[in-house]
Write a structure and sequence with these properties.
The complex is a heterodimer of chains A (520) and B (189).
Chain A: H1 10-32, H2 40-65, E1 67-70, E2 74-79, E3 85-90, E4 96-101, H3 103-107, E5 110-116, E6 125-131, H4 132-152, H5 157-160, E7 170-174, H6 177-186, H7 191-206, H8 214-230, H9 233-263, E8 267-271, E9 274-279, E10 284-290, E11 296-300, E12 311-316, E13 327-333, H10 335-344, E14 357-358, H11 361-385, H12 392-409, E15 413-416, E16 420-425, E17 431-436, E18 440-447, H13 449-454, E19 456-463, E20 466-474, H14 475-490, H15 504-518
Antiparallel strand pairs in A: 1-2, 2-3, 4-5, 4-10, 5-6, 7-8, 8-9, 9-10, 11-12, 11-17, 12-13, 14-15, 15-16, 16-17, 18-19, 19-20
Helix pairs in contact in A: 1-2, 6-9, 11-12, 14-15
Chain B: H1 4-15, H2 21-29, H3 39-66, H4 70-74, H5 80-94, H6 96-103, E1 105-108, E2 112-117, E3 122-128, E4 132-138, H7 141-146, E5 148-155, E6 162-169, H8 170-188
Antiparallel strand pairs in B: 1-2, 2-3, 4-5, 5-6
Helix pairs in contact in B: 3-5, 3-6
Classes of the chains: A alpha+beta (520), B alpha+beta (189).
Amino acid sequence: MNEPQRTAPISVLLGAIGAIRSAILPAFAIAFSGIGGGDRIWVALGVGLAAAAIGTLINYVGWRRLTYTIGESDIRVESGVMSRTARSVPFERIQDVSIEAKPLPRLFGLVAVKFETGAGGGEDLALQYLSAAEGERLRQLVRQRRDDEAAAAPADPHTRAAIPADETGDVLYALTPGRLLTFGLFEFSLAVFAVLGGLLQYADNVIDLDIGNVDVWRDWLEEQGSTVASLGPYIQAAAAVAGLFGLIAVGMVTGVVRTVLRDWGFTLTRSSRGFRRQRGLLTRTDVVMPVHRVQGLVIGTGLLRYRFGWHGLSFVSLAQDAESESHEVAPFAKMAEIAPIVAAAGFRLPDDRTAWHRASKRHRNDRTFRDAAIFGVLTIVTAIMAPTGLFLIPLGAAVLSVGVNLYAWEFRRHAIDAAQVYASHGFLSPTQMIATRMKLHSVEIVQNPLARLRGYATVHLGLAGGQFAMQGVSLDEARALRAAVIETIAGTDYSRLDQAPENQAFSGAQSGLSSNFLAT
Amino acid sequence: MDQTPAFASDKPLAAAPASGPNADAALSENEALTKLHPNYAHALRVQTTLMAIPVLFGALILELALRDGASAALGLPTGIIAGTALVIALALIIRVPARRYNARGYQISDDRLRVVRGLLFRSDTVVPFGRVQHIDVAQGPLERFFGIATLTVHTAGNHNASVALPGLGELLAREMRETIRAHIRRETV
């Protein structure tokens, strides 16, 4: 067990395939460019082979020199060909273990195992590739070791909270294929055009045909344009509408394809030690998040899906998820489905008793005035410089901005109760954030000159792994809020956060404070 | 449960003057902001001067380059560019450091550190000692000359990941570090 081990030997083969893949494009570039005259095919082949051989060799040596050891209290990885690095990660610092199976390794039954420590800058420990069984074994081991340490520590309330101890757990949320399709339709995306554009540009560089040349396009457009012009106006209009529908169709298909690739078989389960999320069609990922590592919640939505009552739930935690800051746990769900997940994470959704506070009216007025003034100046400039009538556009925008600002104010709200803080903003697609008071790290009140004059401020709360800000809070309220929050967090040391989610006597004292605060 | 005694012993000190957040806020907002070391104002002034020198040189070169050309053609008086730059620089060097110094301050109680800064853009940060991850005391060459130091506390939050408090007397900065560290140890053990 405590011997240094190597990753799976097939990793070398996979690395070599990667090297060949990255050698293909330069080889093609040489083959189609003017270098080397008639023999260039051979030159290209040589370059490709050499790149592949070097890549394979580097991979092999790297594989030979990388070993990992599971110790009593930590995982050690030693790596490096010329300069050796030994990294040790203690079990209790591991935020979560994620297992990722990309399509090619998946064929060989291999996975990449990543130990998230929450250290910034991608400094996480990753082992690729291990056999799926070994990956699962490692994960169990890490969890088990950490549990042992937790058991050694005094009175962990989580273990008392009667959760079924089996590893599979209850399914909290799953995306059925039908739901996935609906989700995909809302994930409308025109990214495919960007990809096409990129490909064209690449082709432009490689192939001799000069795509960037305007004349080529103008000729083509004129040719097409004259064809279009020869048709009647109705047919032109019909063609335009058809084009628009085509665009929408392409966007929707892209959305569906991307969503299916990413979220196929999305399952969120609640097991003894945390949440487990599995998803992906080709690249399958499997992430476990300990409950006590969840720092906050973000409930987001989209412009259109909000009208149909769809929301997405993410967990804010120190560990990074794929590209984004927080872990998506229910990307597309009704509020009724989100509520049990929120409860399982130990949070509470705001309800009727939540005393929401709006942003200060002065803040609203100032914003409205500022935006209107910008468009107002534009209107005057346009009225003087541009042809008559054009100034109506910025004028319309000014009026619209006033309306939008007044309406958006209705949605900029914040609240605080005995255990949590809430903030919500956005008028077309409201985003809601919830954080535990106990798990905040600092409170900052920021005021710009105007805000000082008018007596409001922005409150920034230090949240590990995310941002939490309340805008346009009146100064008195901001100070009271800070006093209340600081009173909560000053009482518990950071190193106790994992163990002490609720302290009854303590939160009792706090509710007195916050009711006092709400009365202000 | 087990930290309640420690908390209870802190509580009378922290919230003794009055009950309720408002009274507490009123207390902490107005008075009681501790001023920084007086040398910090001098350090700020020297810093501003050092920054102004290249700008002044630039203005002078521009002035000389344009003396025969554009300035003469437009009939601008000699020294319009360098003179303006000099006046602004003097204003910044004489007036602003003192005001910046006055705008800054801190407050340390037995479980939290409060840092206030900013002349135009005010920022007012409170970090409880229980959330401090690690503490730095740093001294640049200028700070060493003036016998002052910068205390930086780091938290795990993304916002305010590090809160810097410059312009403390060197000894005081070390003392404060020890205070905060002692508090962290007491809470944890």
